[in-house]
Design a protein that fits this description.
The chain has about 350 residues and is α/β, with parallel strands linked by helices. The chain has 2 domains: about 70 residues, Fe-S cluster assembly (FSCA) (GMP Synthetase, Chain A, domain 3); about 250 residues, P-loop containing nucleotide triphosphate hydrolases (Rossmann fold), CATH 3.40.50. Helices cover about 35% and strands about 25% of the residues. An 8-stranded mixed beta sheet has the order 10-11-7-12-6-13-14-15, with helices on both faces. Strands 3-4-5 form a 3-stranded mixed beta sheet, with helices on one face. A hairpin with a 4-residue loop joins strand 1 and strand 2. The longest helix is centred in the C-terminal third of the chain and has 24 residues. It is globular. The model has no long low-confidence stretch (mean pLDDT about 95). Bound molecules: adenosine-5'-triphosphate and magnesium ion.
Length: about 350
């Protein structure tokens, strides 16, 4: 019996995207089906190239289609069309699909480290990523990316972002003379953050990761006023005070109506123990996205402009960061579908 394309599509209606909780056909994820004799090619468009469930989906598709009589083999291929937060283009007229802010209740917990490595990890999966350093008090994204000796150029009136490790980067540190930031008042900060969005020639991007200054001050307020923020990540440490820190970050995001994507526990290990971030997430009722171990190589990578996901990709810390990048990407997709249940992927 010859296999019909319609039958394949029918059977794909029984395969769900585990995270979005709907079948692949209704989600618009089945981009193409081809039947050549007994061999079925299925092309699936994912909501992010960093999809953590790609292999689950592949196996489910294969198993479902193989059950059709006459099918000898199934080949599954993927691409991705990242979900868009439509408010960003409406407000800023930039072609950026999602903006993610990385924040913490207190300083030194590893926000910048996490922001830089997550951005690179997303790019490694095939996403188009930018990083925006909004930490006027300690703009060290350029250092961590090895760009601290560079200066962006201006072309046609727009600041050109720098590039490193396949991501685009711009820092508030490039806009202001060093050591003057502490004298800044809210309005100056506000206009500098605005410039970082509107005066920079950002290319089309799936994600911009914003590295925030520590705490919950003017920068958070300005960011939320200037641009829709798709979601916020809270970085904390394993210590007992993590709960208090994380709560501060959470309250700030909630007041600014920024949805919280989850909490990340950084520097987990012997010195500080493990678990503060997870416990905080439980008590605060937000997703716990995972933990990154304390590893001197992480610091070394940051100091030398060779982030750990590049310099030691097989280390547990790098693996944890890649895992977090996928979870983050998946949460963003889920949020897009929650915001618009009729959304289709293609
Ligand atoms: N998992 C880790 N293991 C070891 N060292 C780490 C880890 N994460 C971050 N660090 C180091 O801790 C220090 C603080 O990290 P980072 O600058 O990323 O924190 P931050 O929260 O951005 O700080 P600030 O609040 O000043 O902006 C850096 O020297 C960094 O290399
Ligand atoms: Mg920082």
């Amino acid at each position: 019996m010859s296999v019909q394309k319609e039958h394949v599509i029918e059977v794909l209606r029984t395969v769900q995207d585990p995270e979005l909780g709907k079948d692949l056909v209704s989600l618009g994820m089945v981009r193409e089906v081809q039947v050549t004799d007994g061999v079925v090619d299925v092309h699936i468009t994912l909501t992010t190239p960093a999809c953590p469930l790609k292999s689950t989906i592949e196996n489910d598709v294969r198993a479902a289609v193989m059950r059709l009589p006459g099918v000898q083999d199934v080949r599954v291929t993927f691409d991705a069309n990242v979900t868009t937060d439509p408010r960003i283009f409406q407000k800023l007229q930039v072609d950026v699909r999602n903006i993610i802010a990385v924040a913490s209740g207190k300083g030194g917990v590893g926000k910048t480290t996490v922001a830089v490595n997550l951005a690179i990890a997303l790019a490694q999966e095939g996403a188009r990523v930018g990083i925006l350093d909004a930490d006027v008090y300690g703009p060290n994204v350029p250092l961590m990316l090895g760009l601290d000796q560079k200066r962006p150029t201006v072309k046609d009136g727009k600041i050109q972002p720098l590039e490193a490790f396949n991501i685009y980067a711009m820092s508030i540190g490039f806009l202001v003379p060093p050591d003057t930031a502490l004298l800044w008042r809210g309005p100056m900060l506000h206009s500098a953050i605005r410039q970082l969005f509107t005066d920079v020639a950002w290319p089309s991007l799936d994600y911009i990761i914003v590295d925030m200054p520590p705490g919950t001050g003017d920068a958070q307020l300005s960011l939320a006023q200037l641009t829709p923020v798709t979601g916020g990540l809270i970085v904390t440490t394993p210590q007992a005070v993590a709960l208090m820190d994380a709560r501060r970050g959470l309250v700030a995001f909630r007041q600014l109506q920024v949805p919280v994507l989850g909490i990340i526990e950084n520097m987990a290990g012997d010195v500080f123990g493990v678990g503060g971030g997870e416990k905080a997430a439980q008590e605060l009722g937000v997703p716990f996205l995972g933990r990154i171990p304390l590893d001197p190589e992480v610091r070394k990578g940051g100091d030398t402009g060779a982030p750990i996901v590049v310099s030691r990709p097989e280390s547990p810390a790098a693996q944890a960061l890649r895992d977090l990048a996928r979870k983050l990407a998946a949460r963003v997709s889920v949020m897009s579908f929650q915001a618009d249940p009729d959304l289709r992927v293609v």
